[in-house]
Each structure stands twice: as structure tokens, then as C-alpha cells.
Structures
1.
Amino acid sequence: MISIEFIVGSLEVGGAERHLSQVLPILKSAGFLIKVHVLSDKAPLKPIFDKAGIPVSLGANLDHIPPILRRPIRLVLSLAKLIRSFLKNRNAIRHAFLPEAYLLTAIAARLTFFSGPLVMSRRSLNDYQKRRPFLGKLERLMHRFTTISLGNSRAVVQQLYDEGFEPGKVGLIYNGIDLLPFQNLPQKQELRKNLSLDQDTLIFIIVANLIPYKGHIDLLNAIGAVRTQLPKSWKLLCVGRDSGILSKLKSQAQALGIADHVEFFGNRLDTPQLLAAADIGILCSHEEGFSNAILEAMAAGLPMVVTNVGGNAEAVEDMHTGLVVLPKDPASLAEGLLSLALAPELRIRFGNAGKERVHQHFTVTQCAKKYAEFYVALVEEQFK
């Protein structure tokens, strides 16, 4: 059996964490020995791993520590924890997700003279390195000790090559989603009735946490610019937790005169139903790796309007499953939204094509199979 220890900063409800919660149970059922090391104690997704019989080791609870000291203490404790895991099991593949986990894992590997496979998964563009240049340099230094790095889009893979990874040391595995929540959904009319949404309203939807780089301000400005050209009855649904900008977004909507048309739903457990009740899906981010939110909207049959960053244009085929517009450009976004708003037949065609594309290329089963093949090949290469 192949033993793999995954390292991740938390098990919060984020893209990488949800990805692991879907893929790892499939890998375990396929016979892989799986263990997860979480650097913090934040783990609302842990019950999924418990149900699958996957051991999860959590970091210490530091809530009693003054906030200014929590991060440095957590980093030290996490490094010590990883060193112990390397010393305890020298044979497992180590696979780190996201920059902080990768840095600590790579350092622990060097300190323990670990010579086994060390894998890093990059899930986003490297814009974060510009905000933290020292950590970016340290991360690039660790690349030389990494067996292979995985990206989830061609855009991410190219950046890994640009950072110095040699040919043959970078791989691509696209995200995949679980299609079960999108099967056997009620008809749109019934969904709208259940959600208290008017039947004749044109509904835009964006599923993205309220973070500046997700582009919600651009979206409000874009819709505000074309509001008089939209059908009389329209609504924008914003689904995702507030990371500190909700009041700013509400003020902007009020200033644009569209506040009555915009609803902020926060986190929801019925996202598939909300998506299937809508007409047009949106992701207008400024930076992105490869978004599951796009795949889920396509699985619900929505035509998409997305910005041309990261893997967005790899998921959405322009003029086939949706429209790809310029990032940080409300005018370009407005043009795309208006063109779909006024073309119901085009929305249906794009939506059907998008659903078919997800079924063909982006299921979690296909994704897990790619990982399984990757780990088997990695072990075979090691023992050549």
C-alpha cells in the first residue's frame, strides 16, 4: 500500500480544504493509506474525514494566547509537529497544500534529512508572493528540495516553471467536483418558489467569499452601469461569508441605486439549489487558481461570465459555455452581463454546454483517479 501524509493549514470551508474532503475519501477507498496533518485547530470539515476513517491530527488551540503571539507560536508548534511526523514515518509521501503548509513541510524535511517524495500543490496564482516578498523568496528556495509540484490550471503550472521548477518536476491535475448535489434537483420554478424568488426575475449569482480580490466592487459597478438596460425585474445574489467588506459593498450598492436588487446571503448549505434557481453565473475575481465555484455553477446549468485570470478561461470556453471578460474592468464585465441578460436562448445553449463540459472533464471521480495514477507513478519512479 502507498502511504500519503497530507499537510494543510486548516480544514475550514475553503477551496483547497473542500477539495481534499472530496478527493481523499475516494483515495482511501482505493487502498491508499491516508493521514492528514492540520497546522491549526480550525477544522469544521473534520467530520467528513472522520466518517471516511481518515486520521486527522490537529494543531493546538491557541485562543487563550494574545492575538499578536498566536501566529509565531503556531508556526513553531507546527514545525515541531511536522518534524516529529517525519521522524516517525520515513516512508510516506508528503503532500503539502497551500504556501504556509508547504514552507513548513519543506523546512521540516530538510531538518530531518527526509529523502522521500515531497509534493507541493499550488492552488492559486502567486500574487501573494508580491505581498510577502521574503516568504516568496523562501518558498522559491524550497523548490529545489521538492520532488514535484502540482498546479490546478495551466496558468498556475506556467508560474511554477517561471519560479524555477525544471521540466518534469511540475504536473497538472484539474479540480473535480461531486455532481451528486446537482442531480435530481427540482425544476427552476419549484426552486424559486421554495426560495421565495419571483418566477419572472432575471437572477445573477456569484458564489465567492466577500474578499476584495473576488471583484464584488467591480460587479456592482458593472451592473450599476447597465441597470437601466436590464429587464425591469432583476436581482443579484451574493453567496459567501463576509471577510470584512460587506458594509462597503452595501454602501456601494446604495450609492449606485441598486441596493433593492442586491442580496447578500452569507454562507449557505443550499448553494446547488440557489445556483439552479438562477439564470447567469458570475466569477469576476482578480486572481484565481482554478475555481470550484465556476464548475458548480456550470454543473447547475448556468452560463458563466468570468474574468480572464488563472484557470477561469480553462474552465469556461469563451462563446461556448459562457463569456470571458477582462479582469478589473467593470465596463468589460458589464458588456458581458448585458449580452447574456438580453439573450435567453444563448443562456440556455451556454448552460447546457457547460453542464456537459463538467460531466466530461471535471468530476471528483476523474480528479481522484488522476491523483491515484500520479502517486503510483511517483512511487514507481522512486524505486527505479
2.
Amino acid sequence: MPHCIIEYSNEIEKYIKPQRMIDAVYRGASKSELFEDEDIKTRSLGYENYQAGSVKKEFVHVTVKILTGRNITQKRKLSELVMSQLEKIDFQSTLLTVDIVEMEKDTYFRVKK
């Protein structure tokens, strides 16, 4: 835990490799010290079709899904650390957002094989 999902506009791939965003988000989650490094799962998904308001502007949105039980201070710190790592990347006129989403412990199941 957590699941870090990076959604972004495909145009970004012209100058930033997706792995660079994955590494940045992973570092931010790791620096929070809320999780064991081996439990941080990070993945990315590029979009060709999207719109933000009345213009088609590049974006990166990170959703960090965590199990319930963290307080607001911990969640804010996690969000700030992920954002601070993203801000180190030289994006061009890109909207950056991070959202922390809680998953219910009673309904989340995981199987390790």
C-alpha cells in the first residue's frame, strides 16, 4: 500500500519519459515514511483524449489510494511530498494535481503469490 496512479496527457511524452514521473511519485510516497518502500505501487496512464475547461492543456494528475486510518496531517504531508517531487520535473505549462483517496480496510483484499 499505497497505489499511486499517474494520469497524464500524452503530449508530455514528447519531452518527459513516463518512468521519470513514476520515479518522482515513488520518491514522494517513500519520503512520507508512512509505508514500507516495497509496498508502494506506482503506475502511469497516458491520455490522448481529454479537455480541461475550454482549452486542451497538458496535465498530470496523481491519485494516491491509501487504506483508511491516516490522519489529515499525514495525508497532507503525503500529498505535499508527492507534489514537491513532481515539481522538480521540467514540465512545460502543465497543470499538476495530487489527490489522496482512502480505501476501506474492510473491503480491500490482496493476495500475495
3.
Amino acid sequence: NIQYVPVAAAFRLYPTYDFKLGADVGYAVGVNEGNSGGFYFRPIIGANISGNTELNISYVKVSDDYDFSMAALGVLFLF
């Protein structure tokens, strides 16, 4: 069981109103025993699918003593 808490800066670019590119870059703090943490990187691509809803795809990578990675699909509701 591995657990991380990311501490990162988020960068976003909006080439058009309906589209965004970005990345979160920082350090992932290991919170369980035997997990030291490591470099954290999360590139993201997002698209507005309605006035207040965004669909985004991201990839998370943590470089620790081993590499942890995952792909994510998300829906963001803007209020």
C-alpha cells in the first residue's frame, strides 16, 4: 500500500476558451512507513464540454525508489 501527498505548483495555459493544457510539478511526500516520497509530475489536458463543466485527462508520475504512475479521467464542475 503506497500513499503520497503531493506538494506542487500548478501551471495552466488556455490557448482557447474551450481548451487547456497544464502540469503540476513538485514533490510527493510519502505518508506510509517505508515510503520516502519523490519527484511528482502531472501533465493535464482539459476541454470545456458545457458552460461550467470540464472533461480532463491527466497522467501522474512519482519517481521514488521505484516509479509510481497512473492515468486519470476526470470531470470538473465549475461554480
